[in-house]
Design goal:
heterodimer, A: alpha/beta, Rossmann fold, 2 domains, 7-stranded parallel sheet, 5-stranded parallel sheet, 8 helices, B: alpha/beta, 9-stranded mixed sheet, two-stranded antiparallel ribbon, 6 helices, 15 strands, 33% strand, binds flavin-adenine dinucleotide, binds adenosine monophosphate
Chain lengths: 312, 248
Amino acid sequence: MILVVLEHDGQRLRKGALEVVARARQLGSLGPIAGVVIGENTQVVAQEAARYLPLVYAAEVGPYTAEKWAEAAYAAVQRSGARVVAATGGRQSRTWTARLAYKMKAGLLEDTLETSTDGQHILGTRYSYLNRVTERQKAPLPVVFTAKPNTTPPAEPQEGGRVEPLEVSLPAGVEVLERLSEQKKGVSLTEATVVVTGGRGLGSPEAFAGVEELAGVLGAAVGATRAVVDAGWRPYSEQVGQTGKTVQPNLYLALAVSGAVQHQAGMNKSKYIAAVNKDPEAPIFKIADYGIVGDVHQVLPALIEALKKLRD
Amino acid sequence: MKFLAVVRQVPDGESRLKIEGGKVDLSGVTMILDQMDEWAVEEVIRLQEKHGGESVVVALGPERFEDALRTALAMGIDRAIHLVAEGYLDPITQAEALAEVIRAEAPTLVFTGGQQADWDAQALGPALAEALGWPVVSWTTQIELEGEGHAKAKHDLDEGAEVVRVALPAVFTSQQGLNEPRYPTLPGIMKAKRKELKKIPVSLQSRVEILEQSIQERARLNRMIDGKDPVAAAHELVRLLHEEAKVI
Ligand SMILES: Cc1cc2nc3c(=O)[nH]c(=O)nc-3n(C[C@H](O)[C@H](O)[C@H](O)COP(=O)(O)OP(=O)(O)OC[C@H]3O[C@@H](n4cnc5c(N)ncnc54)[C@H](O)[C@@H]3O)c2cc1C
Ligand SMILES: Nc1ncnc2c1ncn2[C@@H]1O[C@H](COP(=O)(O)O)[C@@H](O)[C@H]1O
């Protein structure tokens, strides 16, 4: 039995959840697949999930804490007898899956790009060393793995399944005092096919109006460097890099970004990288396919114009 | 009170990595205290400065990790414990071994890095919390003690952040913004040489095996355009992205 933990927003499944279902189906030889929906409004979300899976547990445990998620997933493991658990990769899931793996005394494969099985083990591929090394790992069952988002085509619905409520005895732990959500607008950073990132060289938060306009013309998501986030010019949710998000778009356009290794860790696997920087020695040019050596304040407006012309 | 940091030694991000026999070969690579662990060490020192008590640093890894432990001692940590083990160990196995030592130390709280810069693992902190039966707060950007028993902390989620209250003992993992780590001073380095560093050899079996590592760097085109004429440069870039790369 394989258990998939299905990520959702309280209303609907997230795309990542369907990617994880697809991953589980690839391990078909390990037996049937059950799902679990954890959190709030789980009955409704589980109904949607039952279009993809024969059995879905609904664990109504309230708002997120790592302890609750691990406990709920563990309850589903015990109920289903699953020896493999799959979940979407992300900051939160990589916290609670570690707790779960410890409870199960399982091998943990974090942030896998692809996964397969020989019947006794799960084999996974992932990046390490700040995204610079690709490695193949192998762990005997039981195994918990997370799947890096955007690495697997999402699953298609199959014949309908049933929903079962799952009782979970809630652990003590973290008490949430306040949730600080960030305004999200435009294209999601991790799912975008084009990302336009602005760095400290833009000089001011106002200069990001140009970055947003360019992103708008391209249908791109806006990214930021740590320097920019630290300065309070952009929200943290836009940060790309070791301590931000990892992106792998078709085009990554870096404007006035120096290209520090910690930044590269979040974007070095992009299909094409283009950069604008006034310093010909900027490290970003070493990993760029196309580079303009010039002043971003002159090049950015010209780029917007040139793109608008192309669009017409 | 007792504040404890768990650290790793990792390659300096700027150094070149090479592959030998299908594995990363770290010989000749400059090794440093993981920068995310540095935030953890700094926070532990600050907590001790504010609340008194003792600070301890713990690492699980090969002999060379001693340098990272000495760096933490030079920054100001009181004493170190080194579980000496060779080779790759998955975070669950690491957590098991570390939990034994940490349970015996009975600290007020444990701090470790949010993500390891070598194995890109985020699991050690939460796995350690599970092994100890404690709560975990990951990607922490702010922490404040509320008396002996609780801490208030701010930490990052997938989107946004939250403020939580957590009963101690608990495990915290670091995130940028937590603090600005101090540099070890010369007297600090001298003093660190005489501080207690206890070595405990351990023999552990990893649950996860690394079959093969490779470096698959994309060959980049490195096509440079002079931006002295910004309009012409912009047109050329747009043309290349549209016609050659076909990504817009
Ligand atoms: C543990 C750790 C984790 C980190 N994690 C991250 C992370 O996740 N993400 C991240 O981004 N950073 C991260 N950093 C920080 C990173 O090391 C760099 O400091 C940061 O990426 C620099 O941001 P920047 O490129 O915007 O700024 P700078 O390095 O200051 O670069 C600005 C660039 O703009 C250029 N420029 C200036 N003016 C102009 C102009 N008029 N026209 C054109 N170009 C111009 C300059 O030539 C320069 O190259 C981390 C650091 C540590 C220690
Ligand atoms: N991400 C990783 N996962 C597993 N093993 C690794 C990883 N990175 C390096 N190793 C191997 O671990 C060995 C280094 O071990 P150590 O000297 O104990 O750090 C090297 O042979 C590496 O190839």
